[in-house]
Each structure stands twice: as structure tokens, then as C-alpha cells.
Sequence to fold (59 residues):
Amino acid sequence: MATALDPTDYVTASIGDAARLRNGVAFASRRLMEATGWQIKLAMEIIAKTKEYPRAAAR
Fold:
């Protein structure tokens, strides 16, 4: 029987967890991109404008 500190426990558990986590992150990031698409576009516009007018952005 393995102890709680046996690294093989973590390796075997993390393989399944990594797959579930990857699927969850993919789903969450897809949802996040859908929800914040307009915010990302707005941020890109702001960044573009600060590159055009760096002194005005510093105020």
C-alpha cells in the first residue's frame, strides 16, 4: 500500500485530472472568449490608440 507521500499516487491521479482539467479549461476559455469578445476588441482598440497617441494616454 502506498503512503500519502508516494509520488506515484500523484502521477497516476494527475493523468486523469489533467485530462479533465484540460477539457474544463477549454470549455471555460471558449465561454470566456464568447462572453468577452467585445471587451477584447475594445482593449485592442485602446492599445492601438495609445500607440498612436502615447502622450494623450499618459494623462
Observations:
- Residues 23-59 form one domain.
- The CA atoms of residues 46 and 52 lie 10 Å apart.
- The helical segments are 7-35, 37-52, 54-58.
